[in-house]
User: Fold this.
Amino acid sequence: MKNLKTALLCAAAVTIISAPAKAEDNFYFKPYVGAEYQHTIVDYASVDGISFDDVYEDNFNGGGIYLGARIHDHLGVEVGYNRTTSEDVNNVLGTGVNTSLKLQSFTFDLMGYYPVDEAQKLELIGSVGLARTKAEAEIDATAIGFTSARDDTTETKLRLGAGAQYEFAEDWNMRGMLRWQDADFEDSADNAYILSLGVNYTF
Assistant:
């Protein structure tokens, strides 16, 4: 996981820093909007030999919408909203306790684009930004005589990404990204990885 994080950091840095040097100083404003499927994997922490993997689900399906603008042939900015499904773990560690967890986030990213082909239809992408993420956890202990409880935690963390997009029709792009996101959630997690695939339309 550390090697993957390092690779994403390098890809994002190289794309964002080097791309402007390849272009003329022509800035503009070209908005776009998109939607994507997302699969999130949370890398949980361990406390006293017990991993939070055993307490909460670590794989989540979900989706996101985003609004951005190309401000240069090689640079852009983007904001987004993402939400996962609610995933359950039943009979946690044989205790009879059930848990459910879902995630939602607001994001801001600086995007770097590097065209691969002469027609500039295929581009490599690097991104660096912030995610304001809310984890909504529910604990059901009624089976052992206790009440249910809800524990919501919100945090703002760094995220890095790398991917590619292809213009398959005029103003329409298909985009795939892999992002690493720092996480803590009151010492219960180390980080998360988000794999996304979707389309966007440029105005």
Remarks:
- The mean pLDDT is 91.
- Residues 2-202 form a domain with the Porin fold (CATH 2.40.160.20).
- The CA atoms of residues 79 and 108 lie 5 Å apart.
